[in-house]
Amino acid sequence: MNDLLKILEDYAAKHQVPIIAKDSAVVLEATVAAKRPAAVLEIGTAIGYSTLLIAASAAFGTKITTIEIDEARAKLARSFFEQAGLAPYIELLVGDAAQILPQLTGNFDLVFIDAAKGQYLDYLSKILGKLSPGAVIIADNVLFRGLVAVDDLPPKRYRTLVKRLRAYLEFVTSDPRFETKIHDIGDGIAVTYYRGENNY
Ligand code: SAH
Ligand code: MG
Fold it and tell me: Which of 10-19, 90-99, 149-158, 163-172 has the least mean pLDDT?
C-alpha cells in the first residue's frame, strides 16, 4: 500500500492533482481509525489518494462510496483501487455530487467532503438525513489559502468561495446538532461530530 500511495503522490505532484496535505492526512487517518466507521462517504475522489488513506485506516472491508465528477480522474482512481485489491469495497460514482447525493441510500458513519469548495453547505444539507447519530464529517480546505479565517476582503475571484466556506464553518460551529474542531494545518481541515436530530 505504501508503494502505491507514493505512486499516487508522485502522479499528483506531476499533474497538479490537489490531494490532501500531509498534515491533514494525519488528522483524516486518526479520525477514521478512532471512529471505526462501517460505511464511509467521500465527496471528491480525484485519483483516489484520500480514498486509499481512509481504506487503510478503517477496518478491512469497510464500505466506501466515493464521488468524482472528472471521468479521467475517476478512471485512474478505479485502476488504483484495483491495484490495491480494494475495488470490491469501494463504490466509485462518476458525476456531479449535487446530483448524486440525493439518490444515495443508507446511513454513513463518516463523510469526507473534498469536492467543490463553494458547495460544502449544500453537500451537508443533502446528506444530513443520511448520517448515523455520532457520525463524523471531515471537510478539507476549509481555511482556503488562509483567506477564510481573516477579516480582510479576499481577492475578487475567490470572494464567493470564501463567503461560502465561511457559511459552512458558521453552520457547523453554531448549530447545536454539531460539534466542530477546525485544525489550522494544511489548507485547513474541519472535523465535525453529528449528535443526531434529537440528541442534544
Ligand atoms: N480527496 C482527494 C482530492 C480531491 S480534489 C484527495 O485528497 O486525494 C477535488 C476533486 O473534486 C477534484 O478531482 C474534482 O474533479 C472533484 N469535484 C469538483 N466538483 C465536483 C462535483 N460537483 N461533484 C463531484 N466531484 C467534484
Ligand atoms: Mg482537499
Answer: 149-158
The whole-angstrom separation of Cα 37 and Cα 91 is 16
* DSSP-derived 3-state class of residue 115: coil
Q: How far is CA 105 from the centre of its chain?
A: 18
| Best residue among 16, 43, 69, 161 to mutate for probing ligand 1, ranked by most atoms within 8 Å of CB | 69
User: What's the predicted TM-score (pTM) here?
Assistant: 0.97
Determine the Cα–Cα distance for residues 135 and 149; give it in Å rounded to an integer: 25
Asked whether the beta carbons of 140 and 114 are under 8 A apart, the reply is: yes
Residues with CB under 5 A from ligand 2 (ion): 114, 140-141
Indicate if ligand 1 lies below 6 Å from the C-beta of 68. Answer: yes
